[in-house]
Amino acid sequence: MSGSPIVVLTALDVEYEAVREKLDDPRLHRHPQGTRFEVGRLAGSRCRIALGLVGKGNQSAAVLAERAIAEFTPAALLFVGVAGALHSHIALGDVVVATHVYAFHGGTSQDDGFKSRPRVWEVSHGADQIARHIARVRSWSQGLGAAQQAPEVHFGPIAAGEVVLNSKLSAHARWLQRNYNDALAIEMEGAGVAQAAHLNRALPVVVIRGVSDQADGTKEITDREQWQARAVANAAAFTRALAESLAAEEQDPDRHAATGTKRSSEMSGTIRNVAKDNARVGVQAGHVHGGIRMTGERRPPADPAEAVAGLAVLLQQARAADHLDEETYQAAQAELAAARETLRTTTPQDIGAVTLALKKVRGLVGDVAVLAAEVASVIALVQGLT
């Protein structure tokens, strides 16, 4: 496993277990001050996850989020858990992804009443775009079971405070409706996590919540009906898909073009390996930065569908040579199958979905340099269709 991990934080044990179930061979990681994390990779993926439990409340979330950021230098920070819905169109089990987080308890008390002075943090544009694409594609919910209707994914503000709201009629509920009527859900940790990420050079942070109650006085009933576990299972499934996509973006050497930052190869020069006659060269370098371009006999076909089919054959050969384990091989073939289906059924072709699937394949086969380079060349071919 290589590359920066994705840190995933939760507040409750039921939330922690929902994410932990998705990790292969999680290993204990002890912080010097006693905080315990578990680090593993998502099953069938090269994406590394550092999982932590912060407990309830924004203050605890902020402190331990900062600790996790310093310890792991993550590519992104995700907070996953349950929340109460603030609007009737949001059903139990639906997923809410924060576009921004309100720390709504800030204010000033004056003679004519309490005046709200909130703080607000917006999700980064890139992370928001990836999350919305995952929601549109809807493949993230395939593992939830055929008997369950796929939950809806809602994007909008989340209100993060220090109280559990379980009423539509209380003074607190009316105050929220009056001052934060665009908030979709209410919870208790998002503001702390967002602040910690903001203090670390705007680290991408996404808050993902499964709706376990309607914040309307029925929380005890929904808790007895196991809606916490059901809602967080949905949120964890979406989190898995988002983490994989964020990791694929992190490993993409071309992602820096969108941010205006220079690639390492542009700053330190380009390494070229040249093979002549019958010689073949993989990668000769202690550290490889930027893209890898291979030239020689093999060139990807001009047709993207044919090129993706060719990758499937190369995967079979790599598996037969024992360069890939069975789980990685099956996961990569599933992504290639999704890419082929998208190329076949979408008009105009959904280049973004195909590219994302191929980037996941590249992340899966990253330890096999020649195969990863072949995938990179097909990605370039597909992106050239735009």
Can you tell me about this structure?
Residues 245-270 are annotated as: Disordered. There is one protein chain. The chain is α/β, with parallel strands linked by helices and 386 residues long. Helix content is 41%, strand content 20%. The strands form two sheets. The protein has a five-stranded mixed beta barrel with strand order 5-11-10-6-12, surrounded by five helices. Strands 7-8 form a two-stranded antiparallel sheet. Helix 1 (13-20) packs across helix 7 (227-251), helix 7 crosses helix 12 (351-364) and helix 12 runs antiparallel to helix 13 (369-383).
Relevant terms:
glycosidase; hydrolase; 12 strands; alpha/beta; five-stranded mixed β-barrel; Nucleoside_phosphorylase_sf; 386 residues; Rossmann fold; elongated; methylthioadenosine nucleosidase activity; 2 domains; two-stranded antiparallel ribbon
